[in-house]
Specification:
The complex is a heterotrimer. By secondary structure, chain A is an alpha/beta fold. Chain A is built from ten helices and four strands; from the N terminus they run αααααββααααββα. Chain A has a single domain, classed as Alpha-Beta Complex (Nitrile Hydratase, Chain A), CATH 3.90.330. Chain C has one domain: SH3 type barrels, CATH 2.30.30. Classes of the chains: A alpha/beta, B mainly alpha, C mainly beta. At the B-C interface, α2 of B face loops of C. β3 of chain A pairs parallel with β4 of chain C.
Chain lengths: 197, 102, 93
């Protein structure tokens, strides 16, 4: 049977029937997993980043063990791969890619975005990272080194970005609202206000 | 330089022909199909029916032109199906019959 | 074996792709490249076995840094790559 030629919806429908009949995967189990997966979103990671910006003990704990830090914030990490956290500094910027497939810290960032899974992103990130992030309008200041993290194995990596200037005294909620998906992958950096047009 | 190395076609780091491909940074929402395939793979993993590495191996076995033609989750469902068939958890006859009913 | 942070290592210049069906997590562009161990990440079942539903012994996993422009003969001096590499793909440099 040529699987490549089959209609997608029919193939999924057939698997749904067969796996339920064989007690391998019931529609209820799949629905439950889908609901759990949809709880993962960049808002989870953003909450962790904002807390790390305001609480030095949490920051240290997050850099030491991302999984435990996420769990301490009520994020379900059971069954998820270990979470590693990459700390940006004024001299070092991280960019995460998976050149072999699309490994992504889904528990804290949700489903990987379309661009992260694309051949272009996967090819370019390790070879021309500065040209790639420029497509998001990201230009690193002079003197900042870039470290591209190719996520090839058992960890999943999120970036702890730099806290933007001008946010002194802001609440965790206000800070979390500044942090977006791309900031935690490294294609963008958080900003306190939109750049002037 | 990569013309000189026998890389597998999914092993995309630095591959010259994609270096000029612009990043498609517009938001794309997942379809119901995408989400169900994703959740199904997780259930099969949690129940030790197939590992994520078996999923990847099956995706990597898709011929290069099809690998790039298929969407992300179109690759996944074909890898899942091939894995279940190879392990004898479903048979081609059962699948053919289920495709008629689906 | 086992590598301490700062250890100089080299990724084996091996191409299992040429020998038959396989599933490997060491990207092609690092084969034969010299790098520096950042830190040990723990031990995980070997994905090369998991992919074929074989018993998968635990293998130590390392985060290894590489000079990025040296890999591609292009880029900005000082930029780096950091990649998870299993111990059986590493040798002392």
């Amino acid at each position: 049977m040529n699987l490549l030629a089959l209609d997608d919806d029919r193939l999924l429908g057939a698997l749904r029937l067969l796996l339920a009949e064989k007690n391998l995967a019931s529609p209820a189990e799949v629905a439950e997993r889908l609901a759990i997966t949809e709880q993962g979103s960049p808002a989870q990671g953003a909450r962790m980043v904002a807390k790390a910006w305001t609480d030095p003990a949490f920051r240290a704990a997050m850099l030491e063990d991302g999984t435990r830090a996420a769990e301490s914030q009520g994020i379900v990490m059971r069954g998820a791969p270990p979470l590693g956290v990459l700390e940006n500094t004024p001299a070092l910027h991280h960019l995460v890619v998976c050149t072999l497939c699309s490994c992504y810290p889904r528990a804290v960032l949700g489903y990987p975005p379309f661009w992260y899974k694309s051949a272009g992103y996967r090819a370019r990130a390790v070879r021309d990272p500065r040209g790639l992030i420029a497509e998001w309008g990201t230009v690193l200041p002079e003197g900042v080194k870039i470290r591209v993290v190719d996520s090839t194995a058992d960890y999943r990596w999120m970036v702890l970005p730099l806290r933007p200037a001008g946010t002194e005294g802001w609440s965790e909620d206000a800070l979390a609202a500044l942090v977006h998906e791309g900031d935690m992958v490294g294609v963008t950096v958080p900003r306190a206000a939109a750049p002037a047009a | 330089m990569e013309q000189d190395v026998p890389r597998a076609h999914h092993d995309l780091g630095g591959v010259a022909k994609y270096m000029c491909e612009p990043a498609d940074i517009a938001p794309h929402t997942l379809s119901d199909f995408d989400k169900e395939v994703d959740a199904l793979r997780q259930v099969l993993g949690l129940k030790n029916i197939m590992t994520v590495d078996e999923l990847r191996r099956g995706i990597e076995a898709i011929p290069e032109a099809d690998y790039h033609r298929l969407t992300y989750y179109q690759r996944w469902i074909r890898s899942i199906t091939a894995t279940l068939l190879r392990k004898g958890l479903i048979t081609e006859a059962e699948l053919a019959a289920a495709l008629e009913r689906a | 074996m086992g590598f301490a942070p700062g250890a100089a290592v080299r990724v084996k210049n091996d191409w299992p792709e040429t020998r038959g069906p396989c599933h490997i997590r060491t990207p092609h562009y690092l084969r034969g490249r010299a790098g520096t161990v950042q830190r040990a990440l723990g031990a995980f079942p070997n994905p090369e076995d998991l992919a074929f539903a074989r018993p998968a012994p635990l293998r130590a996993l390392y985060h290894v840094r590489f000079d990025q422009p040296a890999v591609w003969q292009q880029g900005k001096p000082g930029d780096e790559l950091m990649v998870e590499i299993f111990e059986h793909w590493l040798e002392p440099a």
